[in-house]
Amino acid sequence: MSLLRNSLPSTVLKLSVRRQLAVATSTNFIRHKSTTNLKDRLAQLIPERQEEVKRIKKEHGSKVLGNVTVDMVYGGMRGIKGLVWEGSLLDPEEGIRFRGLTIPECQQQLPSASTGNEPLPEGLFWLLATGEVPTTEQANYLSSEWAARAEVPQFVKDLLDNTPKTVHPMTQFSLAVTALQSESEFAKAYQDGVPKSKYWEYTYEDSMNLIAKLPNIAGRIYQNVFKNGQMPNISRDADYGQNISTVLGFGDNKEFVELMRLYLTIHSDHEGGNVSAHATHLVGSALSDPYLSFASGLNGLAGPLHGLANQEVLRWIMRMRDELGSDEVSDETIKEYVWKTLKSGQVVPGYGHAVLRKTDPRYTCQREFALKHLPNDPLFKMVSQLYKVVPDVLTEHGKTKNPWPNVDAHSGVLLKHYGLAEQDFYTVLFGVSRSLGVLTQLIWDRALGMPIERPKSVTTANFKSLSN
């Protein structure tokens, strides 16, 4: 198969991918109005999917997905197909699609708030969970459910209030989610001997409760570490983006609320192989409950090669601005600074991607947001200059397969524009968003009875013997 693939013109391969994605997309245009209750809708869908998976395993179980090379094993398993992930698919040329829909299609088709145009995270969660574009009523159901479940237990509040401000916000986030595990309905039901057919229902309840509480947890961390510790209250009548904006202290800024709706939507899912998604899936495969599973994903997200990258980008841009002494410098001056960074042995943060070979669509939609709402912001102008300069420099440098910007190249500048300037907190927002993708998959993992993940490992001595 790999030889055949290498012999095909790239245009044919791209057309083939687009056709496959178009087929996937075509199933999402009909909105299913049978119920506004997501759990009821999943109860209708799960038997169908269980039968579908049985057929796939029976008819295609012996088929080969690809070859594994020694380079792949030593290269972090890059490119090895070994996971099932329903919510999203990442194509090197097309970018991310959520259940077959591109980001622009999500912006067009998913419900928005009556006061805005950006998609509601609730709509994206319904799409990831069911593969269906929800109605406004279905998205509003989730808004109400999450607001009703949002209260955090007092002992978790006390834990956060007594944690030193010097503890990194992501560490506090992971601590709080882990502490919430005592509330797990799945863990209690498992101890009581609930049948496997019911696992998904308790996973669903835990996931809904956890997602609902994340804004209050994130808000408390932000207020304790960076502000005066006073915690605003969420509204039972507001959507998720509005409520997280409120607890952060930006609820009266309509543009910031719109940014949160967009931010939470586009950062939610990015296939199953990234560290936060895979870690959540891996720990969940041991039948750890959603709290413990998601906490492990957060710990991976906190790494500088993963979610922590978005704060590193803004710091690099601000350091460049300070060293150059102005917000307004020529493209040639920017180019010289980029070369200086590369020649010092550092990378240009926010550029390149493990899979993508084009500009990240998540970068593009944030750029469009900035062009609409903050076209004259000095840092945004600098980001735009970098977009013009960096790809050519990286191409000339020759050590980067993808010279184009990724999502991290833009998000920090938008947050800073509206006053959320504390870079150490940015990954917490990323974590709130990522919960939407990894927890919908965890529900499906339990519904489909996915087994514990346990790949085979080998030693370097095994590889040496291959040549004998």
From TrEMBL:
- Name of this protein: Citrate synthase
Q: Name one Pfam family in it.
A: Citrate_synt
By its UniProt entry, which Gene3D superfamilies does this protein fall under? Answer: Citrate Synthase, domain 1 (1.10.580.10), Cytochrome P450-Terp, domain 2 (1.10.230.10)
- What molecular functions are annotated in GO for this chain? citrate synthase activity
Q: Does the keyword Transferase apply?
A: yes
Keyword Transferase on entry? yes
- Quote the InterPro entries the UniProt record gives: Citrate_synth-like_lrg_a-sub (IPR016142), Citrate_synth-like_sm_a-sub (IPR016143), Citrate_synthase (IPR002020), Citrate_synthase_AS (IPR019810), Citrate_synthase_euk (IPR010109), Citrate_synthase_sf (IPR036969)
Family the UniProt entry places it in = Belongs to the citrate synthase family.
What are the alphabetically sorted keywords of the record? Acyltransferase, Transferase
